[in-house]
Design brief:
Layout: H1 8-24, H2 31-42, H3 50-66, H4 68-84, H5 90-120, H6 124-140, H7 155-167, H8 175-185, H9 190-211, H10 213-217, H11 226-253, H12 257-276
Helix pairs in contact: 1-2, 1-11, 2-6, 3-9, 3-11, 4-5, 5-7, 5-9, 6-12, 7-8, 8-9
Enzyme class: hydrolase
GO molecular function: undecaprenyl-diphosphatase activity
Organism: Pseudogracilibacillus auburnensis
Length: 278
């Protein structure tokens, strides 16, 4: 698609996609839904899932950077529990198992419904409807505080959050929104809900990247799009990092209602446009 690296408009479009993916990934407004809308609006064409895999990997690196201390503590305490028999770290081992359980639920169910979603639910109209659903559920938890911390999470909680994450495979349903909503509805503290949600993003994204590597290998346009894909990748890292830091601050201040308003306005606008002007 690039001719001698001179197609500046194409580069700008892919940088915009990387920005949209990166900024919307950690906040509850659906990154996949926004990427679909931006592609439709600007007529950006990508084959397969290679672009989505690349920019999601960028978001993964940013999220791992923000939560690097939590990851280091989890790894150290799991090693201490498993290999040194230090039972005071059993809660970290359980926490890790629950992350893997929620990941497995999403993986198994996701494989079962992936084709249906990709064929039936990726149209902009469905994205608009899903954004309204996201708006409603974020509104539900806007004032919740929760009392359960990391050590209080149960297997049942992990299953519920895993199921919620599966719903977020539908474009327009936010992954972070779905998991945080589920976590807070079952009583988790805001900080715990945030930590579980974004640590859960790590194994899920790694699994998707490993299982989908063939999409990159078999993408006939990957070589031609190497430069725009790389720029989008770098952009997604930077914007995800700062968006996540901002979202953590918003959660602490209890101002989730702004995402309800945003999803309500954008979802309604998309539906009206698709029904009456498209």
């Amino acid at each position: 698609m690039l001719e001698n690296g001179a197609d500046l408009i194409l580069l700008i479009k892919f940088i915009l996609l990387g920005f949209v993916q990166g900024f919307t990934e950690p906040i509850p407004i659906s990154s996949s839904g926004h990427v679909i809308l931006i592609k439709d609006l600007f007529g950006i064409y990508t084959t397969g899932l290679s672009f989505e895999i690349i920019v999601n990997f960028g978001s993964l690196l940013a999220i791992m950077t923000v939560y690097r201390n939590d990851l280091i503590v989890l790894i150290k305490e799991n090693i201490a529990f498993l290999f040194k028999g230090e039972k005071q770290y059993a809660h970290s081992f359980r926490f890790t198992l629950y992350l893997l359980l929620a990941t497995m639920i999403t993986g198994v169910l996701g494989l079962a419904i992936e084709q249906f979603i990709s064929e039936e639910l990726t149209k902009p109209l469905f994205v608009g409807i899903s954004l309204l659903v996201t708006a409603f559920f974020v509104w539900l938890i806007r004032n919740l505080q929760g009392t359960k911390s990391d050590i209080d999470i149960t297997m049942k909680d992990a299953i519920i959050i895993g199921l919620a994450q599966t719903c977020a495979l539908i474009p327009g349903i936010s992954r972070s929104g779905a998991t945080i909503v589920a976590a807070m509805l079952i009583g988790l503290k805001r900080e715990t809900a945030l930590r579980f949600s974004f640590l859960l993003f790590i194994p899920v994204t790694i699994g998707v990247n490993v299982l989908s590597y063939k999409d990159i290998v078999n993408d006939p346009l990957f070589s031609a799009n190497f430069i725009p894909y790389t720029l989008a990748f770098i952009t997604s890292i930077i914007t995800t990092y700062f968006a996540l830091k901002w979202f953590i601050d918003v959660m602490k201040k209890g101002k989730l209602i702004i995402f309800t308003y945003y999803c309500l306005v954008v979802g309604t606008a998309v539906i009206v446009y698709q029904l009456f002007f498209n």
